[in-house]
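Duplicate of #3305? Posting structure anyway:
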């Protein structure tokens, strides 16, 4: 963040005050921009090749695909001059792809585990001597219906914020996880229906789960 801010502010000073002090053939802005970019790219590469936590991978990919090309280089004060320089990406393509794969693998596992924990909690709630919650006057499982959908949507949104391609890839992966989760949910629910007919709140629990179906559709 500090490097990005420094680069943006310094190049803005070059555009506003320094370019006009030199003949065009000196290519003053291009030299400054390339030096800053090369240093920034070397630091990004150094970070990418070190051991990174998931949140660091996400932040670095955000810089490579989103913040640097779209917010820094398209800044209204810099865009015209930067378009002449053709700086390239902050990371080599191979390294960027490697980070994307790590991020996608991690995010897929995170969402999958989140869905599994949610279902486990829901099954536990069926076993309790407790009436299901009501949502807008109807029995419904807020935990299951809303949490599952939010988990998947949030995962997709985070990925799309990196880039459209990364978002599309994660969406394809999660679209495979959702049916697997729904099958587990269906099997658990069928098991409950078969074995828990004497449960005090058997009927409200059935209604709550039936009402979840519309949300999942």
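Output from current build:
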């Amino acid at each position: 963040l500090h490097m990005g801010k420094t680069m943006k502010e310094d190049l803005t000073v070059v555009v506003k005050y320094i370019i006009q002090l030199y003949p065009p053939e000196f290519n003053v802005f291009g030299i400054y921009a390339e030096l800053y970019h090369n240093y920034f790219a070397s630091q990004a590469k150094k970070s990418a090749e070190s051991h990174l936590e998931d949140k660091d991978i996400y932040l670095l990919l955000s810089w490579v695909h989103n913040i640097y090309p779209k917010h820094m280089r398209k800044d209204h004060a810099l865009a015209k001059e930067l378009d002449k320089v053709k700086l390239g990406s902050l990371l080599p393509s191979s390294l960027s792809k490697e980070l994307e794969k790590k991020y996608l693998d991690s995010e897929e596992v995170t969402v999958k585990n989140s869905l599994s924990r949610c279902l486990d909690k829901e099954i536990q709630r069926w076993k309790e001597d407790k009436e299901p919650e009501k949502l807008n006057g109807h029995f419904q499982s807020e935990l299951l219906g809303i949490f599952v959908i939010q988990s998947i949507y949030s995962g997709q949104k985070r990925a799309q914020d990196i880039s459209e391609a990364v978002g599309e890839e994660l969406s394809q992966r999660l679209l495979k996880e959702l049916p697997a989760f729904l099958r587990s949910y269906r099997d658990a629910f069928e098991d409950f229906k078969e074995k828990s007919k004497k449960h005090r709140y058997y009927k409200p629990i059935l209604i709550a789960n039936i009402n979840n179906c519309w949300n999942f559709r």
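Confirmed duplicate; merging threads. Residues 93-127 form the longest helix (35 residues). The chain has a mean pLDDT of 92.
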